[in-house]
Structures are given as structure tokens and as C-alpha cells.
């Protein structure tokens, strides 16, 4: 029995050791603060990058920045128009040199917002050594080549030569080209000012960001919850109408939706596709479905000869006409998407360059015409199109299959179109970057700022950052250059529309549908809205 | 005895290195993780190159592996793409998952073994048939169905529990998820115990014990059950590892921020550091749990000795 007693002892010792390490360090954050009367809870996803303004390029981190920061401009939550926020005035005479004056404002830690707060923040965002993923937003500013050499060689300067502080409240910006709508881009969160603490104690700032917006961060448990509270002394006019917001990270948007139904959560801003059929019955008028600046398209690999023939545009137009957009948006997306009839978004409005029906016949469903066009264009390259998409998020598989069905039916060919799923988004992006697409692929575009320029230049300009299909057209490029140099906004928009017409006539990408933002909320809340970026306007929500 | 443990511990080293190397290679095969960081647009090449350098992705794979293992032994599991230390992620995820596993294992032991003993002793009676049928149903229904159903019924319709688990993930909140997680294994434990008990009931030493006039309770607990537990202990031992790493479905349904969720997110974001780090720890858990099971054999059956 000696061996047995020994074994017993060893087993227990290891078990105890395991249990001890296991149980230590678990209870670091107790529940959230006591002020529950006017605080609402909302669903959230774990931001992909550290919460630096110039490093946040997805909507979950963007939500927080929108609450904690205010920039020179802010996009009106309803109209999307860029309105002065911290900017007292932004003046230019030549669309290239801008003088920016800022209002009296402070950060929530009491520090004054000065011209330096902006200039330092922009220099930080542009500098290659800081690895900021939105650095290219500063690429229009003179000196960008030195702080962010495109070929990855050593940077020769730490600060942008185009930025000059004049006095405490004034600074000037010199661009490396004419860009008339530059002031309108300044509402993007990458252009937010940063307090001195950001530079002095970076890791402390990251664990609890301090900004100048209507909310301050009370506590932040990375990966699980962020508690934001209204900032009492907020100097702006868009003060928070509630006591605060608790953002809770959910592992799955279905769980968040269930929590909303059970009364444990106040706001869900991502209604899962599987629940869209029940959402009216579950929530009634507490369900929002409003247009957002997102368009889904099918892009083509122009680096592949097969897709770059003189008559390829006929094949592309034919494919476009073989897709029954109306039916797909109604049955699969339950009208949370609208068939696209141009290459921009309805949130731009008529003045901003959106035009319904701009695409004309080319986006109308017509199986006979589709068949004819594809035949005229020399048939489908290789006899079959493969639509590549990432299968890990969204309901991409559902609509790709539906699009393929629609094409197959229109062409009376069971094998005309098949989906080609890629396991993860990262791998999908990899294959695109490595120019490995052999047929059309899913391309989604969420605008950075509500300007027609943002829907065209990054996507179709030669070698632009999101021109994944490597489409290139001299006429288009020239028109965009002209539009950027045009000081008069209306004329600039007109030139951009002419450029869009080039995209249309070549069917550079097939527009599919505009995506809506959706949200559901509890009975406690009122005045819930989604802005054109499909983010809830938290500061205007009323509780109780 | 001590020598046996040492030998087993030494055996763990090649297993550990092999397993981590495999995972490391597999994650690397998935391709360049940087591409997924910039959303639907291409990362600008200079920043991408800089990031690759920072995460050590510009070096050959074997060199990456060596550097990584070197760091692991000093307790540095690297940094996730969102700037969080992987050790920090572990410190928040493992306690939650361990609590969930404890709840699940308790269910397996208490309910599973009790049901197994009862049915094993009453073979062929209505109780036995009834429990067998129920276990069959539980085994054949996938976890996400049981999970979603219980969540909807208990959480939304009847309001007995909160449908999602809070950040604290206390034991109380984990009872229902633990039951869901344990359900399938619980059914297996019941069946294993039942067969084992039914078999040993007819063995000589049980007959001897009964003939000696020992009370029925003592015969069952000391003689019959103890000898019948070996296959069950093996199963539960390996199940600990499976429950910890394989709770992805349950964790997603009930919003539990544990190991499964971190792994899932790590894979989606192609975050080598997170995935390899968590799997490394899970490999260790498996190895230790297996060692414990082997040592427990000697406790249960004195005939088994380790030199």
C-alpha cells in the first residue's frame, strides 16, 4: 500500500497547484460603477487594433473614438454634412494651403486643446515608426514622403514639413497637391487631437484613453467591457443626453440579441442576419434600418488577361444584368440592403453626388439581354466564373450563392457561376494582395467620410490603396485630378460624376447593393439613431 | 514512484515540442496575417513591412519558432495584434474556462457516476432503460441545439437565468453553461460506469464481500465502485483537456470570454501569438491531466504499482 498512499499525495499536490494558479488573478474587475439610473448598455466587439485614432480602421474601435474624441469637423449624424466642431475657421485661397483656427476647448483631463495638440497628433499618425494603419490619410500633406517613405527605407524626418504652428490657436497645412475637399475629410477620427499624456505615458494612455469628446472612459477591461460616462464639463454643444454607456463585448451577435430580448441589454447595433425575419415581431418600432455609407460590389482581376480583353466590359455588363438584385435583397437580406444603381451611396444625397439610376440599364435584371451581352463579349472566360469571398464573417456565402443561382438561371447553364469560399478574412485579403484572384471577388466599401471622392478615388484610381482589381483608366484618373483641384464644391462633384460615368461605361466593378445599418433597442431608450457610418449616435440617446 | 513521475515528466518534453511546432507551422501556413489588419484595403507597403519586422514575421519560420520558444521559457508569450500581451489574455481567459470546466466535471462526476451506478445495479429494469434512452437522446443532439434551447427557455421565456454570462463569470452563472458543456460527456460517463459496474458485479471479490456479510453500501462503494472507476477516470481525465479547449460553441452561445473564444478570435484574425500560446498551455494541461489519471489508477487499484 505504500505506493498507493504516495500516489494519492502526488496527485493531490498537483491538483492543488493547478487549482491555485487557476483561481488566482480571476477577479480583477468587479462590476461597473453604481450610477445605473441613466446609464445604458450596448453591444460591442473587441477592437482589432490599439485604440489610437490613427490606428483604428474598423467600426468597433471607431465607436469609442466617436464618443471620446471630437475633431475639427464632425459629420452631421443625420445629413452626413461636415460641420465645424473644434474648427473656428478653415481658410484657403488656392485649395492647397489651409489656415486652421481652433476654438477654446479642453481635454477631459483639463489640458487645453491647442494647435500643438493637432500637429503633434498628425505627425505621430503619419510617422512610419509608429505603425499607424491610417497613416495614408496624411499622405496629402507635404513632407509625407520623408516621414513615411513608400519603399520602406529609413524615414528622413519625424515631422511633416507641411504642418506649421502659427500661434496657440492657429496652424497651417500645406498639401502636396490641390485638394479642394480636404477640409471635409477632417471629420475622420484619424485627424483627432491628442493630449500630451498620449506622448508622455503611452501605455497608460492606451489602457485608459483620454480625449476631448462628450464621454470619458471610466474603466476599460480589454476584451470584455468599457464603461464610458458623460463628461460634466464638456465644452461642446452636443453634450451627452444620458449618464453614460457601458459597452459590452459579445462573443456572438446572436447572444447580444437574445440578451436584448431578455432585457439585459439596451442596444444592439448589429442585428444578426438569422434574426432579421423575426425582428419586426420581436421589437416592433424599436428596430432601426437606415441607409449607411456602405456599398457592396463585385470587383474583377484586371491583372488577369482573361478579364482584360477589349470586349470584357460586355461580359461584365452581362453578368451585372444577370443578377436579380431586388429578389436577393428582399429574400436574403430582408430589405436591410437596397439594390445599387450607382457606385456611391444614398447617404451622400443628390448634392453630394449620389444619383439614383445612374447605372441605367446595366444594373437592370434582364436575362435575355445578359445572355446576348456575354455572347457578344466572347463568353465567360474559361466557361465559368468563380466568385471569391471570405466565409468567416457576414452572410457572404448566402448572397454569393444567390448571385450565382441568378446568373446560372439567366444563362441557362448550371455551371456558369460557382462560389469560391476562402476560410478567413486575412487569407482572403492575402490572396487579393498577392494578385491571385482568377475571377470576380467580393469587394465591400465602407466610406471614411461622406464625400463622392471617397467612393471613387481609393477604389478605381490607378494603384490606389483599395483598387484591388488593379483597374486603370487614364480618363478616370484625369477627371479625378481635375475634380480634386476644383475649388467650387458643386463643380468638383460634377467632375467626380463624370469620372463615375467612366467607371459605369467600362463596368469596372459590378455594383450590387447599398447596405443599411441596423439596430434594435430596449423600451428604456428613446431618440436612438444611426449615423451614416452605421454607428449609433450615443450622445443623443435618452434613457428612461 | 518518484522515478516514475520524473520519467513521465521527461517524456512530456518531446511531446510538448512536437505539438507546439505542429501548431506553429499550421498557423504559419495560413499565410501573412498582416493583410487582414487593414480592413477591405491594402495595407500601405511601408507600414506592412514595419509591422512584419516588429512581429518577427520577416524571418524564416524555423527562426521564428526558435525565438518564440526561447521567449516562452522566459514567460513571454508575445503580443496580440490589439497590443495586449498574450499572458494578459490568458490571465483573463483561463480562470473563466477553468471555472466552467470545474462545473462541467462536477456534473459529470456527480450525476454521471450516480446514474451509472443506479442503472448498473438495476440492469434491464425500467430505470435502466429510461436512463439509457435519455443518454442516447443527449448524445445525439448537438451541443449548440441544447445550448440555444436552454438559453431561450430559461433565459428569455421563463426568465430564470440571464441568457449571457457577465465578465465576472461566477460559478452561479456558469451552472447552465456547465451543464450544457457536460451533457454529452455526462451521458458517456453514465454508460461507461453502468457497463463497468454491471460487469464487476458478477466478479469473485464482490461475491466474497457479499458472502462475508458486509453491508450493501460498503460492498458497492468500497469494492464494486472503486474497481469499476478506472475506465471512467481515464475518460474524465482526457475530457478535462477537451472541455477546456473545445468549449468554443458553448462559450460563444453564452458569451463566456474564455479560452475557446480567444482561440476562435485568434484564428479568425490569424494571430499566431495568441493561437500558439493558448494551444501550448492546453497541451500542457492535457499532459498533466494524463499523468494525474495514471497516478490515480494506483489509488483506485492497489494492484497497479509504479516502480
TrEMBL record, chain A:
An example Pfam family from this entry, by short name, is SBP_bac_5
Give the signal peptide range.
1-22
UniProt-listed InterPro entries: Peptide/Ni-bd, SBP_5, SBP_5_dom
Keyword annotations for this protein? Signal
The UniProt record lists the keyword Cell membrane: no
Classification via PROSITE patterns: PROKAR_LIPOPROTEIN (PS51257)
- Domain Solute-binding protein family stretches: 85-465
Q: Which CDD domains would you find in this protein's record?
A: PBP2_NikA_DppA_OppA_like
Tell me which domain of life the UniProt entry assigns to the organism this sequence originates from. Bacteria
Q: Please list where the region (Disordered) is annotated.
A: 27-56
* Alphabetical list of PANTHER family matching this protein: ABC TRANSPORTER SUBSTRATE-BINDING PROTEIN, PERIPLASMIC BINDING COMPONENT OF ABC TRANSPORTER
What is the protein name for this chain? ABC transporter substrate-binding protein
UniProtKB/TrEMBL annotation, chain B:
Q: How does it sit in the membrane?
A: Multi-pass membrane protein
Can you say where in the cell this protein is located? Cell membrane
Keywords from the UniProt entry: Cell membrane, Membrane, Transmembrane, Transmembrane helix, Transport
Transmembrane helix as a keyword of this entry, yes or no, is yes
**Entry keyword annotation includes Membrane:** yes
The protein's predominant localisation is membrane
Against InterPro entries, the record matches this protein to:
BPD_transp_1_N, MetI-like, MetI-like_sf
Annotated TM spans = 12-31, 96-118, 130-154, 174-193, 224-249, 275-300
- Where the record annotates domain ABC transmembrane type-1, the positions are 94-297
Family assignment from sequence similarity? Belongs to the binding-protein-dependent transport system permease family.
Tell me the protein's name. Answer: ABC transporter permease
What species does this protein belong to? Streptomyces fuscus
Query: What are the top taxonomic ranks of the organism?
Result: Bacteria, Bacillati, Actinomycetota, Actinomycetes, Kitasatosporales
Amino acid at each position: 500500500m505504500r505506493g498507493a498512499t504516495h500516489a494519492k499525495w502526488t496527485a493531490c499536490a498537483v491538483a492543488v497547484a493547478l487549482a491555485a494558479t487557476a483561481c488566482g488573478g480571476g477577479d480583477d474587475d468587479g462590476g461597473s460603477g453604481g450610477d445605473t439610473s441613466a446609464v445604458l448598455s450596448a453591444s460591442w466587439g473587441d477592437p482589432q487594433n490599439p485604440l489610437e485614432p490613427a490606428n483604428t480602421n474598423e467600426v468597433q474601435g471607431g465607436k469609442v473614438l466617436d464618443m471620446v474624441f471630437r475633431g475639427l469637423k464632425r459629420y452631421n449624424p443625420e445629413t452626413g454634412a461636415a460641420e465645424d466642431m473644434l474648427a473656428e475657421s478653415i481658410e484657403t485661397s488656392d485649395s492647397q494651403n489651409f489656415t486652421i483656427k481652433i476654438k477654446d476647448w479642453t481635454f477631459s483631463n483639463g489640458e487645453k486643446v491647442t494647435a500643438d495638440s493637432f500637429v503633434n497628433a498628425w505627425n505621430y499618425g503619419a510617422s512610419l515608426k509608429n505603425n499607424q494603419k491610417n497613416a495614408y490619410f496624411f499622405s496629402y500633406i507635404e513632407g509625407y514622403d520623408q516621414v513615411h517613405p513608400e519603399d520602406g527605407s529609413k524615414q528622413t524626418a519625424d515631422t511633416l514639413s507641411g504642418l506649421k504652428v502659427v500661434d496657440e490657436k492657429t496652424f497651417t497645412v500645406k498639401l502636396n497637391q490641390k485638394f479642394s475637399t480636404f477640409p471635409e475629410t477632417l471629420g475622420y477620427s484619424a485627424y483627432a487631437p491628442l493630449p500630451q499624456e498620449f506622448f508622455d505615458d503611452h501605455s497608460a494612455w492606451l489602457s485608459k484613453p483620454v480625449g476631448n469628446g462628450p464621454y470619458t472612459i471610466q474603466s476599460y477591461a480589454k476584451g470584455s467591457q468599457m464603461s464610458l460616462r458623460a463628461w460634466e464639463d464638456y465644452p461642446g454643444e452636443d453634450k451627452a443626453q444620458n449618464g453614460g454607456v457601458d459597452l459590452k463585448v459579445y462573443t456572438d451577435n446572436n447572444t447580444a440579441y437574445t440578451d436584448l430580448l431578455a432585457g439585459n441589454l439596451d442596444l444592439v447595433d448589429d442585428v444578426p442576419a438569422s434574426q432579421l425575419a423575426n425582428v419586426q415581431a420581436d421589437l416592433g418600432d424599436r428596430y432601426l434600418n437606415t441607409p449607411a455609407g456602405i456599398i457592396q460590389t463585385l470587383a474583377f482581376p484586371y491583372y488577369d488577361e482573361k478579364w482584360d480583353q477589349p470586349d470584357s466590359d460586355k461580359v461584365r455588363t452581362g453578368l451585372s444584368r444577370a443578377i436579380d438584385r431586388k429578389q436577393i435583397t428582399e429574400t436574403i437580406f430582408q430589405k436591410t440592403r437596397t439594390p445599387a444603381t450607382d457606385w456611391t451611396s444614398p447617404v451622400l444625397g443628390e448634392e453630394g453626388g449620389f444619383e439614383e439610376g445612374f447605372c441605367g440599364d446595366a444594373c437592370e435584371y434582364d436575362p435575355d439581354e445578359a445572355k446576348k451581352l456575354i455572347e457578344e463579349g466572347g463568353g465567360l472566360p474559361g466557361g465559368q466564373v468563380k466568385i471569391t469571398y471570405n466565409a468567416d464573417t457576414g452572410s457572404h456565402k448566402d448572397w454569393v450563392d444567390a448571385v450565382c443561382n441568378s446568373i446560372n438561371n439567366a444563362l441557362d447553364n448550371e455551371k456558369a457561376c460557382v462560389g469560391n469560399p476562402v476560410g478567413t478574412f486575412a487569407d482572403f485579403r492575402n490572396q487579393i494582395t498577392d494578385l491571385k484572384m482568377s475571377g470576380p471577388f467580393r469587394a465591400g466599401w465602407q466610406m471614411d467620410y461622406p464625400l463622392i471622392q471617397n467612393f471613387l478615388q481609393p477604389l478605381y484610381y490607378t494603384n490606389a490603396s483599395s483598387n484591388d482589381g488593379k483597374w486603370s483608366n487614364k480618363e478616370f484618373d484625369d477627371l479625378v485630378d481635375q475634380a480634386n483641384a476644383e475649388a467650387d464644391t458643386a463643380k468638383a462633384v460634377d467632375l467626380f460624376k463624370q469620372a463615375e460615368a467612366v467607371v459605369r461605361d467600362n463596368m469596372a466593378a459590378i455594383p450590387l447593393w447599398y447596405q443599411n445599418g441596423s439596430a434594435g433597442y430596449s423600451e428604456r431608450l428613446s431618440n436612438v439613431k444611426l449615423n451614416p457610418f452605421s454607428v449609433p449616435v450615443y450622445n443623443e440617446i435618452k434613457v428612461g | 514512484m518518484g522515478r516514475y513521475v520524473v520519467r513521465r515528466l521527461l517524456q512530456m518534453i518531446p511531446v510538448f515540442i512536437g505539438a507546439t511546432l505542429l501548431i506553429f507551422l499550421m498557423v504559419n501556413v495560413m499565410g501573412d496575417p498582416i493583410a487582414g489588419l487593414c480592413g477591405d484595403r491594402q495595407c500601405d507597403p511601408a507600414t506592412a513591412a514595419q509591422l512584419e519586422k516588429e512581429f518577427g514575421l520577416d524571418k524564416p519560420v524555423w527562426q521564428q519558432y526558435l525565438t518564440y520558444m526561447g521567449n516562452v521559457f522566459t514567460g513571454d508569450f508575445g503580443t496580440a495584434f490589439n497590443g495586449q500581451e498574450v499572458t494578459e489574455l490568458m490571465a483573463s481567459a483561463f480562470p473563466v474556462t477553468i471555472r466552467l470546466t470545474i462545473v462541467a466535471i462536477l456534473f459529470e462526476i456527480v450525476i454521471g457516476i450516480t446514474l451509472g451506478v443506479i442503472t448498473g445495479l438495476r440492469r434491464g429494469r425500467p430505470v435502466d432503460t429510461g436512463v439509457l434512452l435519455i443518454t442516447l437522446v443527449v448524445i445525439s443532439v448537438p451541443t449548440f441545439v441544447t445550448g440555444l434551447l436552454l438559453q431561450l427557455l430559461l433565459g428569455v421565456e421563463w426568465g430564470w437565468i440571464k441568457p449571457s454570462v457577465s465578465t465576472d463569470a461566477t460559478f452561479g452563472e456558469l451552472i447552465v453553461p456547465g451543464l450544457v458543456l457536460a451533457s454529452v460527456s455526462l451521458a458517456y460517463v453514465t454508460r461507461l460506469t453502468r457497463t463497468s459496474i454491471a460487469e464487476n458485479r458478477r466478479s469473485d471479490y464482490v461475491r466474497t464481500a457479499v458472502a462475508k456479510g458486509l453491508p450493501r453500501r460498503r460492498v458497492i462503494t468500497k469494492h464494486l465502485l472503486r474497481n469499476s472507476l478506472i475506465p471512467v477516470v481515464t475518460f474524465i481525465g482526457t475530457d478535462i483537456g477537451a472541455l477546456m479547449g473545445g468549449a468554443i460553441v458553448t462559450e460563444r452561445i453564452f458569451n463566456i470570454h474564455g479560452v475557446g473564444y480567444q482561440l476562435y478570435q485568434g484564428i479568425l484574425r490569424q494571430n499566431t501569438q495568441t493561437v500558439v500560446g493558448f494551444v501550448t498551455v492546453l497541451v500542457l494541461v492535457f499532459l498533466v491531466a494524463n499523468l494525474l489519471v495514471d497516478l490515480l489508477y494506483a489509488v483506485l487499484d492497489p494492484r497497479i504499482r509504479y516502480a
